[in-house]
Amino acid sequence: MARYAQEDVTAAEVARQKxxxxxxxxxxxxxxxxxxxxxxxxxxxxxxxxxxxAVTARxxxxxxxxxxxxxxxxxxxxxxxxxxxxxxxxxxxxxLVIHHEESGRAWSDFDLGAAYEGPPGLVHGGVAxxxxxxxxxxxxxxxxxxxxxxxxxxxxxxxxxxxxLRAEAHIDRVEGIKTYAVGHLADAEGVTVEAEGVFILPxxxxxxxxxxxxxxxxx
Length: 219
Ligand SMILES: CCCCCCCCCCCC(=O)SCCNC(=O)CCNC(=O)[C@H](O)C(C)(C)COP(=O)(O)OP(=O)(O)OC[C@H]1O[C@@H](n2cnc3c(N)ncnc32)[C@H](O)[C@@H]1OP(=O)(O)O
Description:
Elements: E1 4-6, H1 11-37, H2 42-59, E2 70-72, E3 78-79, E4 99-100, E5 106-112, H3 125-142, E6 148-156, E7 163-175, E8 178-187, E9 190-200, H4 203-212
The structure holds dodecyl-COA.
Dodecyl-COA (DCC) binds near residues 133, 142, 149, 176 and 203.
Family: Belongs to the THEM4/THEM5 thioesterase family.
Membrane topology: Peripheral membrane protein
Protein name: Acyl-coenzyme A thioesterase THEM4
């Protein structure tokens, strides 16, 4: 089962894979958008379906057994390329490119199209939660204490339109193994959704760190 893995891979190889898979993923994203919005005739839809199934069969010729997992590189970087929000190889991900500032603030400018609709022309509330979960989680992790989302609380102040958006997050406070982060989603007019969450370094990770003799970083 895919989990966290240490990989012996060079930076050049990571760059090569990113240049290969990034455009593939973007093409699939465009396919999803095209499928939602197409108005071509029935025969064209059926022909497209057959072509897509043939492409899927080609990609399935050799596959991972499970999901992608999170892979750490020798230089200390990590690849979460299957991640539902930021995954380079995940067409479900918008994707978000999340920037981290020295101050601890994390932010991302991104665009949500037709695939993320809830109410007509508006972002699905669950998608807003998806984005903010990742944003707050990354802000918490950048503070040195990565964790699983324990509780995430959202306040939908007004509807979020599809289109260009910004998400921001920062750490509010740290209490031992629990990091409290806050953030929001905004359109050009201002904040649409506010979020607060607690991210907890899980017991299994705490025990593993204690065994490896490096517990202090997370205490
Ligand atoms: C650059 C970096 C990249 C890093 C980038 C990473 C970004 C990832 C962002 C996405 C994150 C996700 O979606 S994560 C996926 C969604 N979340 C999950 O599936 C989590 C499922 N739940 C769990 O695994 C677990 O319940 C945990 C980890 C939340 C807690 O388990 P535990 O560690 O065994 O907890 P336990 O010892 O009992 O309690 C520890 C302390 O936490 C408190 N606590 C326990 N559960 C909760 C809770 N749900 N909400 C609040 N507080 C809680 C307890 O009261 C206690 O406080 P005290 O007595 O010590 O005061």
